[in-house]
Design brief:
Blueprint: H1 17-29, H2 36-49, E1 53-57, H3 60-70, E2 76-81, H4 87-93, E3 98-103, H5 114-120, E4 125-131, H6 140-144, E5 150-154, E6 170-174, E7 187-191, H7 194-203, H8 244-274, E8 291-294, H9 297-309, H10 325-328, H11 339-344, E9 348-351, H12 359-375, H13 380-387
Parallel strand pairs: 2-3, 2-4, 4-5, 5-6
Antiparallel strand pairs: 1-7, 6-7, 8-9
Helix pairs in contact: 1-8, 2-8, 3-4
Amino acid sequence: MKIRKNMLPVLRPYGGKEEIEALKEVIDSGWWGKGPKVDQFEKEFAEMVGAKYAVAVTSNSHGQDLVMKALDIKDGDVINPTISFMATAMIPLWQENVTTNIVDVDPYTMCIDPEDVRKSLTPNTKAIIAVNQAGVPAPIKEIRKFYDGLIIEDCAHSCYTPGAGQASDIAVWSFQAVKTMPCGDGGMITLNDEKLYHKLKEMTWFGVSSTFSRVAKEDTVTGKPGYTWDYEVDKIGYKCYMIDLTATLCLEQMKKLPQMLEWRRHVQKRYNAELCSEVERPPHTETVQYYCAKVPAEHRADLIDYLASKNVHTSVHFKPLHKYEIIQKHMTHKNREFPAADKEWLKLVSLPVHPAMTEEDIDYVIYWVNQYFKENAMNPEELKKLQS
């Protein structure tokens, strides 16, 4: 097969004239900051995921940080899985006197391992961050059998998997540039606790009370009164609310979400059916945020280089958090072992999957992955040993 001229990205956003026209409308309106589009997006997103309330923020990370600060999480530890993006371990460290209690993962799903959670709980555990890795639902119901404390569900990869965000106390979502519903960057907190909802809303804008409306006339979405110049501030807050320009992109992306997810699942289906036996298939997901294949560890680096030479971009999701020196300094349980993660992450390689891919792009990836293993053939016994 002829080598393509341009790089095929592993991830990329997908949009078009609808987003451009919607943004033009907002720009022409003169209302670029937090306003009616944010209120509309919060309402529609909450309905989509089956939550009573939603708070739009600047990122998933800001959302998780805001939740921890609103609940006054301090003087303890927060449990999180070692296979995740750096933010998962960093956010607990932004809190007062909190360590990051990193645990191992299930070797197949790469989600948090309930048994290791049980073993790692301390009297000072304040919360668990359950990450839906690559869109695979975290085993929250299993954890609930022995833990009744706060569970924050990281749904960054789960927009939208039916049932995501409903087994936990609070869910936090991501609309970062290469997520399933991208808007450049943004996040959403969803929950059913009315008191906490109002507190979070106020904390997104310096603690200004919710009696303050930035809408110049009555908001038909929320029913709030028009603009008022006076307000109260009774708590320490931050500035991490979403703005209308971002919310507008999200609203347009949400319209396309079913179509975009259907195409991601099509890519997943073709990879599963047509990649060679040396490639271990990841668990099925509804969102296919990443296609986290596994290959024999001895071949991963060479395969990545080989595909790059054919202009196919790949990645690894993720290097274990306990491998980072900065995180090791702040771990609750130092010098502990992570047998599943340490073995399995060395096999991980994420292949391209996004709505902008064509059938020809999918053909291209499958051909060159299979070609690599043809050129580096292993006998069946060797392959079985490496995959075990």
